[in-house]
Every structure is written in C-alpha cells, then in structure tokens.
Amino acid sequence: MTKAALIGLALIPASAAFAQPAANLSFDVASVKKADPPEPGRPMFMGTQGGPGSRDPSQITWSNATLKSLLTTAYDVKPYQVNGPDWIDTERYNITARVPPGATKEDVRVMWQNLLAERFGVTFHKISKVFQVQEMTAAKGGVKLKETTLDPAAANAPQPELPPPPAGRGGVQFSDSVAVGPGVKGGGTPAGPPDGPKPGAGPFGPPQLDKNGIPQLKAPGLIMMMTMGTSGPTARMVGKAQTTESLANMLGNQLNQPVVDKTGLTGKYDFVLEFAPEMGGRMMMPGLPGPLPGPSPGGETSPVPNAAEPNGATLVAALQQQLGLRLVASKSPLDVLVIDKAEKVPTEN
Known about the structure:
This protein has helices at 3-11, 67-75, 105-119, 152-155, 244-255, 315-323, and strands at residues 29-34, 47-50, 59-66, 82-83, 92-98, 123-138, 146-147, 179-180, 184-186, 208-209, 215-216, 221-229, 232-242, 259-261, 269-275, 283-284, 291-292, 325-341. By secondary structure, the chain is α+β, with helices and mostly antiparallel strands. Helix 2 packs across helix 3. It starts with a helix and ends in an 8-residue tail after the last strand. The relative contact order is 0.20.
C-alpha cells in the first residue's frame, strides 16, 4: 500500500459513516441499563464481546460503555471526532443486545446507530474541522522495531476472543478501553473467568508477566497495561505480530489525535513501549487520582505533550527512544460529529 493510500485511509473515515441509519435494521432485543458506580478497591471492567465474526455472533455484551464509545463504534469515528457534553465521557451503561441471524458487522454498526437514536434520543450534525495530525516516520538513527518471532501462519491468525468480565477480579485488560482496579489498569475484555485459565495457561488466560512486569504475548495482539508504583503510574504498550498501522492507531487513541503511518514499513513486528502516562487532559476515570488524556472543552484536542514526567519518558519521547519512530506535526481537515441532543437516562427496555 502506498503512503498516499495510508493517509487516505486514516483521514477520511467520516463522510459515509455519518449517513443516516437504515430504519429497518435493529437488534432483536436490547437491554440498556445505567451501570452501577465503581466500588472503592474493586476493579471496573469496560469492553465488548460477541457479535459477527466472534465466537458468539448472536449476542453482544458491552460493559460500562460511555455514550462517546457507543458513538465512535456506531459511526466508525475516533473519539476526537465527537463533540458533545462532558457527561458522554463519564456516564456508563451496561448493554446486552441480541443480533439477528446472518447480520454483518456493518449491519450491527447501523443497529447501534438506531439504538442511539431510539434509546438515547441522539441527534447530531456534521462539521469539518482542521485537526493537528501526527505523521509517524523513522527517527534519526533508524527504526528499532524487530520482526515478529511468530511463524507466518501464527502471525496472520486472528487473536482469540476473550471471555466475559469476571466479577470482582483484577488482571490485565485488552484492547483500547480502560479497566480500573487495584494496581493495574488496561483496556478491553477482561482476562478470564473466576475459576478459569491461569496466567500463561492458554489463549483465554491473561498473559504471563516477566520479571519486569511486561506481558508475554503468545499470539498476535496489541494491549495496554498500566501499573501504579510509589513514584506514579507506568504504562506499557505491548505488541505481538503487529503492523505499524496498528501501532499508529493505538498511538492516536492514546494521544487523542490522528496519527498517520508514514513509515512505509509492511512487516509485522513485536515491541514493548514503556512510558509515563500523561494526566493533563479533561477526561476523568472513576477510581483514578487524576484525569486521563481527552478532548478539551469546545471539542479542541489537547496538544501532544512533550514534557517528561518525573518517573519516566512521555509516550512521544519513549516512541523515539525505544522504537526509533518520531511524530511530526501536520494539519488536515476531518469531519466531526457534533451532538445536538442526547439523554443521560435511556428509555425503558
């Protein structure tokens, strides 16, 4: 794929996605309930499981979803492309949806759009806005990424889906969502059932940690994990058999800005990126001592931070030091979904 094609993929996700949903596509049954507030000292899990292409295509379970996360999924946009009231980042919902037989992933996307309109009363309009874009290129001295150690068959296999959230258990979390718990947070679907596989025991258990606390992935995957120490939090982004495009997407989620892969690399790589997470944005997470990176008021995105934290390098600095990649600022127009109306309390099930 050419560099121009990569830029096109990254910068025009919104025009088709913002089309009005088809009224005849909906979940067979959908339960939408306000999530209970997190209990002190207990983990809060967030993420989705099930749906077309998964081990359970007939049902989707979404734990502690925010309205913003629902909007980004329904309209195939990034969080920085959604502008709405502050509460769409903080109010949380538990959703169980039955998917009609034969539905595709694109059908389900439209079903989410209809659910948002019917249950939350969401209405919006679209604007175009110039964003700061970060272009990921090779740093001076060259890229330090290592080709994956997985054999080609394993490297191209899909990552196994993980089981539903266990009650009251911590652990490494997968994907881009966040889980808050004693000492550890990460993202996505939790690591295993209460009496299920132990760390390192198989594809559905949490990855085993080495002596430095780094997850050891045995299959293709990209995870985030944060540990709390006496000097503050330390975040680790760990990839196994990942493309630089996948890395750029994860970086964009962390920085709340578009990150475009301009490395020209086409292989799959294993990497560990360790950094001090920034705590200067607006978005707050229950159970954490400070804010997580997020959009600032009025829909403006927070600038990419570049000042080092006392306990380690920032994400941008660590990217260059550890992986030999740098981010170069540019600008580009993107479509933005502006919420005109949305209800905190969904209509009855």
